[in-house]
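Trying the structure run again after the queue cleared.
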Amino acid sequence: MKKTYSKLFTQLTLIILFLNSVFGFSQEQQKIFSPDFVECTYSNKTDKPLIIYNKPNGELVKELEVLDFPNCWFKLAITDSRDNWLKIENLMVLPGCEDHELNQNIEKYKEKWIKAEQFEIFLPDIKNITFKFYKESNKKSKVIFETNDFLKVNIIETKGLWAKVKFIYNEKEYKGWLEKKYQCAYPWTTCSVEE
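Done. C-alpha cells:
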C-alpha cells in the first residue's frame, strides 16, 4: 500500500512540475505583451511573405513565408517608424503556434525594418467606450474620427506609443493617431481597456 501511495505521489509531483514548466513558459511569453511598445499583427489574409530588411530601403535580411495555420499570426512590437517603414523590437508567432522557431528568439530581428503594409491593430469590441482618432499624436489635437464600433486598422507610422493608422469606415478612408490604450494587437482575443 505504501508503494502505491509513493508511486502516486511521485507521478503527481512529476505532473505538477510539468504543468509548472508549461505555465511558466506561458507567463514568460505573456511578459512580451507590455505597454512599452506599439504592437501589431501581420494580416493573416495576405498571400505575401513578411519581408525583413536591415534598414529602410536596405538589403533583404529574411523573407518569412505566410503562416498557413488558421490560428497563427506574426505579432510584432514596433519601436520606431520612418517614411512608411517600421522598426522591429520583437517578432513572434501566436497564439496557436507557440512552438514556431521564431518564438525561440523573439529578438532575432530586433532593430530590423519592415515596410508598413498589411500590419493591423484592432480596436477592442467594447460598446461603452468611444475610440478617438486624432489629427496629431496627442490628446489636445483635433479629433478627426470617433466610434465605439469594432475596427481593424492598418498601422502606417508610430510616435512613442501612438500609432498612426488608416482605415475605411462607411466607404470613406481615414488616417489618424490612436493612443496606446486603444491598440489591440491580438485578433484572437478581446483586449481590455481601462478608462
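DSSP finds one helix and twelve strands in the chain. Worth checking whether this holds up in the mutant runs.
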